[in-house]
Design brief:
Layout lengths: L2 H22 L6 E5 L5 H9 L4 E4 L2 H10 L6 E4 L8 H7 L3 E5 L2 H14 L3 E6 L13 H14 L3 E8 L7 H16 L6 E4 L5 H6 L4 E4 L1 H4 L2
The protein binds pyridoxal-5'-phosphate.
Length: 224
């Protein structure tokens, strides 16, 4: 694809996001984070050149390599993967814009310790395992609200801003929708939460219609 063709292609993806958000309301704003885990630094730079600023990775090492390689560009980096305790310092060295996947109280405490030592504040989302899948990380829906308030109380250097969820792994649209509704319901009842991160390439329009205001788009943004 030429740069011009890629721009037309991305305009079409953005139009799909627009159409979905307008079905919610004129005032419902949705942010697109381009997930670059299957893409090279050159591909990220191409997408940057047609206007994308927010990118995300799911491995600390990859985030570090790409952020360093592209440090000349004013990019915003998100970390959307599950964080191992021994990688916390590496993540904090990159100072990401948002960590989407805080998935246990234990990790919250460890993160708090490291943040305090570095005198840093990090914006974080709580990951919800809304369809209660064995294969997925995150808090069970019934535990999420309590965990959120506990972390707020016990971890002053973690700035909780909302929730993140991955749609149910299913071909049945109703089951996926149900998982998004579960996450949105939790989000709506959290004090001061402003970010509901849900929706990927295969289900972002549905996620937006269920209230998502941040979509994480990988394959569709990089045309893979
Ligand atoms: C890979 C990934 C995405 C993007 O997936 P696509 O289906 O390629 O859009 C979004 N969120 C997380 C947590 C991911 O790991």
């Amino acid at each position: 694809m030429t740069q011009e063709e890629y721009k037309i292609y991305i305009d079409n993806v953005i139009r799909r996001v627009e159409t979905a958000r307008l079905r919610v309301s004129d005032y419902h704003i949705v942010k697109v984070v381009a997930i670059s885990k299957y893409s090279t630094s050159d591909e990220i730079a191409k997408l940057y050149n047609i206007g994308q600023r927010a990118f995300g990775e799911n491995k600390v090492q990859d985030l570090k390599l790409k952020a360093e390689k592209l440090e000349e560009l004013p990019l915003e980096w998100h970390f959307v993967g599950n964080l191992q305790k021994n990688k916390i310092n590496n993540l904090l060295d990159i100072n990401p814009t948002l960590f989407h996947a805080l998935d246990s109280i234990d990790l919250a405490h460890e993160l708090q310790k490291k943040l305090e030592a570095k005198d840093m504040i990090l914006d974080v989302l709580l990951q919800i395992n809304s369809a209660k899948e064995e294969s997925k990380h995150g808090f069970m829906p019934e535990d999420a609200a309590y965990a959120y308030s506990q972390i707020k109380k016990e971890c002053p250097n973690i700035n909780l801003k909302g929730v993140m969820s991955i749609g149910a792994h299913s071909d049945n649209r109703d089951i996926i929708k149900k998982s998004f509704e579960t996450t949105y319901e939790i989000y709506k009842n959290l004090d001061g939460a402003t970010i509901c991160s849900m929706g990927m390439s295969g289900d972002f329009e549905l996620a937006i219609e269920c209230g998502s205001n941040m979509v994480r788009l990988g394959s569709v943004m990089f045309n893979k």
